[in-house]
Amino acid sequence: MAVTIYNEEGNSRGFNWVTKTNINNSQLQYLLKVDEKNISSLDWSNAITVDGVSYDYYDNYRAWRAEVLDLEYGETYYYRVGSINNDSFSKIGSLYINDGLESLEFIHVSDMQGTTKSHYDMWLKTINVMSSNFKNIDVMLLSGDLADSMGLQSKANNEMGWLLNGANNYLKDLVLTPAAGNHDTANNIFYAHFNVNLSNDQDYKWGMYYNYKIGDTEVIVLNTNDDLNNNFRLNSKQVNWFGEVLKNSTAKWKIVVIHEALISTGKHMNDRSSRYIREDLMPLISEYHVDLVLSGHDHVYSRSNPYLWDNEEGTMSNQGIEMTLINDNNHLKNYYNTPGTFYVTQNATTGVEGKRREPSKQTSEPEWFDLATSTINDKYMSYQPDAPTFGHLEIKNNKLTYSSYYVNNHDELVLFDTFDVIKDVDSNPKVNYLNELIFKAFLQADSDVIAEIDEQLTLLTAVEKDDVMLLTNYYQLRADYQSKISASRVVNKIDKLLLTADIDTSDIKEARTLYSVLSDEAKYYVTNYFILVKLEIEVGMYRRQVSD
Ligand SMILES: [Fe+2]
Question: How much distance in Å is there from the Cα of 439 to the middle of ligand 1?
Fold first, then answer.
């Protein structure tokens, strides 16, 4: 049994439950909580009944699905599934339909995979600790590898059962948002356990991608198994869809859940698929200001400093930007009003024997990953806690807080990492617009964006200008850009003079004059300097230059 958000609307719910094929009809029943009645004395005669639609996905197993749209925000509903004919029903679940405007609470888990029932005991133990500490969770984000036996429906089906049924007491009262991992690739195993309305005519055999918005928070789930026949590259159809969702989203907060990490210190970081994913997704994530990317796959814990994608360099960079925003003893505790994306790779939540990994040494490509240091224990956040681990995410007012915990031997939670992202909604729209433009200029400076920023700056009062972020950095960026542009103009002019067919001594003279006033850096760009020297020698004008 699993409850999901069915479509893009935060007040829709998808229900999915599994029976044997000898069950021929099954229903969902739900009713609005109207008073503080004991759950066992609810009057189900007033319930709304929805017939489950069945799907025989494996051997003698039948998946049932039902969905409910337009539930009332701010209300709590009770539900159960089962057979009206036989008067046999599941446990009663309770769902609070949070509009997300005040606060939203998430749990983030990953890689719970195991192959035996006893492997999932660790999951149940972790859930027990979680449930006694976090009682108002709206959504559980699962960043993949829920099952372990890739390609084997019989085994994966059991594993999904241990995961979902075992923890049902906790899971029945919240919403699950699963992303498929590479181990969730028994055919249709995801589709048969989670009822989500799938758009974009996608192939759901090995997972699915989808999005929804609750209040001011957009959650986008990607499917890294969607690279069939594609040479480890994500299907471009999915990448385009992702770009469109981001472009059209009006949400203040944007969170991406994806199994394979983009930034991490796990052993998969140099995999071909990981490199492709970075290449395909990071420009979009950066351009549309995703706040948080949550992953797994590497079975280690890592947390980045905020990242930007640099369109010119093709690499990631937050250099120069983070420094002005760091406070709190050089730790990124309060990170104000983006720009940048935090990448969290969550450790294997249950850490079943053999499933935990040590962070890999940063010897090759990942050495440019700029990871954070925890404000809690001063540890570099490339970390293996060697214990069950999960994240808690809260979005409240203008602040997003992500905190990571492990469960110690006494079943106590130990906080080992936390960071905030703060956005000030009350700030001036003119200032906000300028901040956006400046952010854009850092991604890729061009004369249009610089002209626009300069014009917008003239519209601000001095007090308003104080609120513009990174203004000093922007002035530096503009100066660099302008000297580069003016240098390149001169360089072009020199090239043109030297390459004309009817060149005369005045052209040579002019080229020399232009060259001599260039900065050393700009001189480097005069690729035809050797022609100038050759011409000067030919006409007897050449004098040895100090810098030759
Ligand atoms: Fe995994």
Answer: 35
Chain-centre distance of CA 505, in angstroms?
61
What are the beta bridge partners of residue 345? 295, 302
Parallel, antiparallel or unpaired: strands 175-178 and 93-96? unpaired
In angstroms, the Cα distances linking 280 to 229, 241, 309, 313, 506 are 17, 12, 11, 15, 51
Mean pLDDT of 368-392: 86
144 alpha carbon – ligand 1 mean position (Å):
7
- The token pair at 403 is 């905190």
- Among the four given CATH numbers 1.10.3300.10, 3.30.720.120, 3.60.21.10, 3.40.640.10, the one describing domain 98-422: 3.60.21.10
Q: b/e for 302-323, b at 16 or more Cβ within 10 A? A: bbbbbbbbbeeeeebbbeebbe
Helix (H) or strand (E) holding 80: strand 76-83
Task: Fill in the amino acid letter for 49.
Answer: T
**How far does residue 393's CA lie from ligand 1's centre (Å)?**
21
User: Using one digit for the tens of pLDDT, what is the confidence trace for 128-174?
Assistant: 999 999 999 999 999 999 999 998 999 999 999 999 999 999 999 99
pLDDT (0 to 100) of residue 331:
36
Residue 128, φ and ψ in degrees, nearest 5: -60, -45
Which backbone phi and psi does 88 adopt, to 5 degrees? -125, 125
Q: Among 337, 313, 335, 326, which residue's Cα sits nearest to residue 442?
A: 313
Locus of tokens 């808690």: 392
Show the 3-state SS of 159-186: HHHHHHHHCHHHHCCCEEEECCCCCCCC
- Ligand 1 centroid – CA 513 distance (Å): 64
Amino acid identity for residue 338 in this structure = T
Ligand 1 centroid distance, CA of 98 (Å): 31
User: Are 282 and 313 spatial neighbours (Cβ–Cβ below 8 Å)?
Assistant: no
Query: What tens digit of pLDDT does each residue of 310-360 get?
Result: 555 544 544 433 322 333 333 344 444 455 789 999 999 997 777 888 887
**Residue type, position 305, single letter:** N
Distance 295 CA to ligand 1 centre (A): 10
CA 261, chain centre distance (Å) = 9
Distance CA 449, CA 456 (A): 10
Pairing of strands 413-422, 399-407: antiparallel
Strand partners for 447: none
For the chain, the domains span 98-422, 429-469, 478-538
The alpha carbon of 296 and the centre of ligand 1 are apart by a number of angstroms equal to 7
511, 532 Cβ separation under 8 angstroms: yes
**Residues with Cβ within 8 Å of residue 91, at least 6 apart in sequence:** 80, 168, 169, 172
Rounded distance, CA 16 to CA 193, Å?
6
Encoded amino acid at 33, one letter:
K
Check whether the bond before 359 is cis (ω within 30° of 0).
no
